[in-house]
């Protein structure tokens, strides 16, 4: 037998930032604390928490929705894959992450009773709270160009008036 459940959390980040981090190996590892191999390609294999979880991407809607098949090392060979849907909705203060986990084997109630919260939601909140928003690119304000005044060329006449000093010398001669 299996069961389904829904959990929600508000994460202090944009839907796109969460989406991108979830599907990036480094980002997923950094936001959860467990080593992950992720991909942003439909049908690609994924794994998280040092191989404890694995599956594949079933549906990807950038910045809005991620659907993946998931299994853990605790699933038996008779257990079918479970499915997670991560729905990202912008809200004040960040993003409401709605997690729909379906087809979970009955004996795996720890996922709903704290596993998602302790392994994903709380670490994600801390990770994104530490991320500083990138400053907006500043556009350089142009100062008005100073107009260069054309230098007036003064033509010096052939006859110059002698300076007072020179005139005084001439007079002594």
What does this structure look like?
There is one protein chain. This protein has 173 residues and is an alpha+beta fold. It has one domain (2-130): START domain (Alpha-D-Glucose-1,6-Bisphosphate, Chain A, domain 4), CATH 3.30.530.20. The protein has helices at 15-22, 25-32, 115-130, 164-172, and strands at 2-11, 45-48, 53-61, 65-72, 82-91, 94-105. A hairpin with a 4-residue loop joins strand 2 and strand 3. The chain is globular, with a radius of gyration of 35 Å. The chain starts with a strand and ends with a helix.
Which features characterize this protein?
6 strands; 31% strand; alpha+beta; 24% helix; Alpha-D-Glucose-1,6-Bisphosphate, Chain A, domain 4; 4 helices; six-stranded antiparallel beta sheet; 173 residues
Give a quick summary of the entry.
This protein has a single domain (2-130), classed as START domain (Alpha-D-Glucose-1,6-Bisphosphate, Chain A, domain 4, 2-Layer Sandwich), CATH 3.30.530. 24% of the residues lie in helices and 31% in strands. The chain is built from 4 helices and 6 strands, in the order βααβββββαα.
């Amino acid at each position: 037998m299996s069961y389904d459940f829904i959990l929600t959390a508000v994460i202090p980040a944009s839907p796109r930032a969460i989406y991108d981090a979830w599907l990036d190996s480094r980002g997923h590892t950094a936001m959860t604390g467990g080593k992950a191999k992720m991909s942003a390609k439909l049908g690609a294999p994924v794994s998280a928490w040092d191989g404890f979880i694995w599956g594949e991407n079933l549906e990807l809607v950038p910045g809005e929705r991620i659907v993946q098949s998931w299994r853990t090392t605790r699933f038996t060979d008779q257990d079918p894959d479970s499915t997670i849907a991560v729905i990202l909705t912008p809200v004040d203060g960040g993003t409401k992450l709605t997690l729909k986990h379906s087809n979970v084997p009955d004996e795996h109630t720890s996922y709903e009773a704290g596993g998602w919260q302790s392994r994903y939601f709380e670490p994600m909140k801390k990770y994104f709270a530490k991320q500083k928003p990138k400053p907006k690119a500043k556009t350089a304000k142009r100062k008005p160009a100073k107009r260069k005044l054309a230098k007036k060329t003064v033509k010096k006449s052939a006859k110059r008036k002698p300076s007072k000093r020179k005139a005084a010398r001439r007079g002594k001669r």
